[in-house]
Specification:
The chain is mainly β. Helices cover about 10% and strands about 35% of the residues. It is built from 1 helix and 6 strands, in the order E-E-H-E-E-E-E. The protein has a 4-stranded mixed sheet, with no helix packed on it. The longest helix has 9 residues, at about 45-55. The radius of gyration is 17 Å and the shape is flat.
Length: about 100
């Protein structure tokens, strides 16, 4: 979630489904209101944000599992960020298709 706003705060859910079942992981995102200074929240943070967004996520060499329900290996984590910052959601699972909402 780039350039978060206070109305982005809430509960986020990630579901994984396959023909054998479903797994759900949720997290709470809290966004603290930030006053703008000179038209920007934190311009000095922009290079670091770009670096984090450009990072390549390593591929995991796991074969699809289609004979059991999906299972989260890592759940989503609650986040508390300042308005204008970026929230990053990461998780790992086996055996399903991800849906984030």
């Amino acid at each position: 979630m780039k350039s978060s706003r206070t109305l982005d705060a809430g509960i986020y859910t990630c579901k994984a489904r396959n023909k054998y079942g479903e797994a759900v992981s949720t997290c709470k995102v809290t966004i603290k209101k930030q006053e703008k200074v000179d038209g920007s929240f934190r311009p000095e943070a922009l290079p670091k944000i770009k670096e984090l967004e450009d990072k390549n996520v390593p591929e995991i060499d796991e074969k699809p599992v289609d004979f059991e329900p999906p299972m989260f290996l890592e759940n989503l984590n609650n986040q508390e960020i300042n308005e204008g910052e970026t929230a990053v959601f990461t998780t790992r699972l086996v055996g399903g298709v991800l849906l984030l909402f």
